[in-house]
């Protein structure tokens, strides 16, 4: 569906900076129990997808991001395998590996040990700075997910997760390498994008 009346975010870098600031302010406004309740709601919204999956990849959250860790706990309780991003170096390919995030990674995030063999997920819970109602996504700007998702397209459900406001009214001008999301999940619901 074309929605011509929406303003377009032509400048991705400026949009990324503004949305990161908004994410920071929102996360800072949350009392810990409110935040945990929102993350439990997210898990509930994801339940059908977790149930349908075999291997669920998510991420080790940064401070202001919604945490997918409760959803990963739920996936494991359902008997699903889980995986987290791991990098040998900043410029190496992102892989998804099983196990707890116990090792320091090159992007300042903990990751599973690199001697755990990579898994091929069939559900990827993708971090984002923002996305639009067509599934176009703004991430941290390094292209890690774009490259990793290229190989998984067709064999995995690709679901962005975030706080409610991270689903934008504006449209994002997609770059040729951008990998669109199949759906967006937040504490308020799961939105599947038309393709
Ligand atoms: N939680 C989470 N994990 C993720 C991502 C993400 O967006 N969120 N990534 C998505 O691709 C990959 C990592 N990509 C990243 C890209 C840039 C920065 C970054 O700019 N971090 C700091 C600067 C830290 C530093 O330079 O050491 C920052 O927030 O300013 C972090 C992770 C894989 N894992
Ligand atoms: N498939 C690819 N092959 C080569 N380079 C790529 C590919 N995908 C993305 N890139 C490069 O990655 C850079 C960052 O892209 P972009 O700003 O879209 O990242 P992002 O989606 O916000 O970040 P991320 O996916 O890490 O969260 C671009 O300069 C682009 O050249």
TrEMBL record:
Signal peptide: none annotated. The keyword Magnesium applies. Its EC number is 6.3.3.2. InterPro entries: FTHF_cligase (IPR002698), FTHF_cligase-like_sf (IPR024185), NagB/RpiA_transferase-like (IPR037171). The keyword Metal-binding applies. SUPFAM superfamilies: NagB/RpiA/CoA transferase-like. Keywords: ATP-binding, Magnesium, Metal-binding, Nucleotide-binding. It catalyses: (6S)-5-formyl-5,6,7,8-tetrahydrofolate + ATP = (6R)-5,10-methenyltetrahydrofolate + ADP + phosphate. Its cofactor is Mg(2+). Pfam families: 5-FTHF_cyc-lig (PF01812). It comes from the Bacteria. Belongs to the 5-formyltetrahydrofolate cyclo-ligase family. PANTHER family: 5-FORMYLTETRAHYDROFOLATE CYCLO-LIGASE, ATPASE INHIBITOR/5-FORMYLTETRAHYDROFOLATE CYCLO-LIGASE. This is 5-formyltetrahydrofolate cyclo-ligase. The lineage of its organism: Bacteria, Pseudomonadati, Pseudomonadota, Alphaproteobacteria, Sphingomonadales.
């Amino acid at each position: 569906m074309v929605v011509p009346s929406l303003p377009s975010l032509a400048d991705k870098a400026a949009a990324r900076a503004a949305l990161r600031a908004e994410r920071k302010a929102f996360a800072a406004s949350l009392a810990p129990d409110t935040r945990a309740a929102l993350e439990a709601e997210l898990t509930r919204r994801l339940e059908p997808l977790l149930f349908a999956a075999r291997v669920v990849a998510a991420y080790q959250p940064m401070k202001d991001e919604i945490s997918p860790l409760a959803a990963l706990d739920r996936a494991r309780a359902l008997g699903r395998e889980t995986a987290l991003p791991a990098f040998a170096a900043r410029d190496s390919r992102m892989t998804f590996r099983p196990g707890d995030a116990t090792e320091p990674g090159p992007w300042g995030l903990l990751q599973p040990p690199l001697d755990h063999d990579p898994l091929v997920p069939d559900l990827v819970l993708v971090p984002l700075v923002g996305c639009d109602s067509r599934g176009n996504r703004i991430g941290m700007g390094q292209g890690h997910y774009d490259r990793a998702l290229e190989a998984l397209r067709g064999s995995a459900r690709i679901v962005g997760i975030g706080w409610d406001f991270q689903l934008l009214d504006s449209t994002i001008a997609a770059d040729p390498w951008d990998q669109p999301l199949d759906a967006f999940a937040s504490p308020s619901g799961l939105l599947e994008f038309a393709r």
